[in-house]
């Protein structure tokens, strides 16, 4: 099961996402909720999730700043940003931080589920690619060592 954290300062929105989404079908479990970016950082560091569903504009620390901090720490968690604001600067910031998706609230039926499915599929492909690269790199080094060559 993929671990998910939902971060939104609007409690009703956050609870709605947690309660109304069929996480089991998506092979996910919500491990934590947070009401702002600072709480979100703490939850990410504690639970090491695969996916964040995160509002952009929140008190104390917004979603963009939170993700900047996570990326600076080397955390590659997948993120779906949510916002009620359609300003291009938010989408641009999200893209620069390699967010998986960007949804405008309120989103339509099935829209969040599709974004989650896409983000996790992309994550799975990326992880498989990294494993293959590491495995192939190890085979290349082993082959060179057997032939007495250095890299």
UniProtKB/TrEMBL annotation:
One of its GO terms (cellular component) is cytosol. Pfam families: Response_reg. Residues 134-151 have a biased composition (Low complexity). InterPro entries: CheY-like_superfamily, Sig_transdc_resp-reg_receiver, WalR-like. Residues 3-120 form the Response regulatory domain. Keywords: DNA-binding, Phosphoprotein, Transcription, Transcription regulation, Two-component regulatory system. Residues 123-151 are annotated as: Disordered. Signal peptide: none annotated. GO terms for biological process: regulation of DNA-templated transcription. GO terms for molecular function: phosphorelay response regulator activity; transcription cis-regulatory region binding. This is Two component transcriptional regulator, AraC family.
């Amino acid at each position: 099961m993929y671990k998910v954290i939902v971060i939104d300062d609007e409690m009703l929105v956050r609870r709605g996402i947690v309660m109304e989404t069929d996480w089991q079908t998506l092979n996910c479990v919500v491990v934590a909720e947070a009401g702002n970016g600072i709480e979100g950082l703490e939850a990410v560091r504690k639970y090491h999730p695969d996916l964040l569903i995160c509002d952009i504009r929140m008190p104390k620390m917004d979603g963009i700043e939170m993700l900047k901090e996570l990326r600076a720490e080397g955390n590659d968690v997948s993120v779906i940003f949510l916002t009620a604001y359609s300003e291009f600067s938010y989408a641009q910031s999200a893209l620069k931080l390699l967010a998986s998706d960007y949804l405008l609230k309120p989103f339509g039926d099935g829209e969040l589920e599709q974004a989650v499915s896409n983000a996790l599929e992309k994550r799975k492909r990326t992880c498989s690619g990294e494993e293959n690269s590491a495995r192939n790199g190890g085979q290349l080094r082993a082959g060179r060592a057997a032939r007495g060559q250095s890299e």
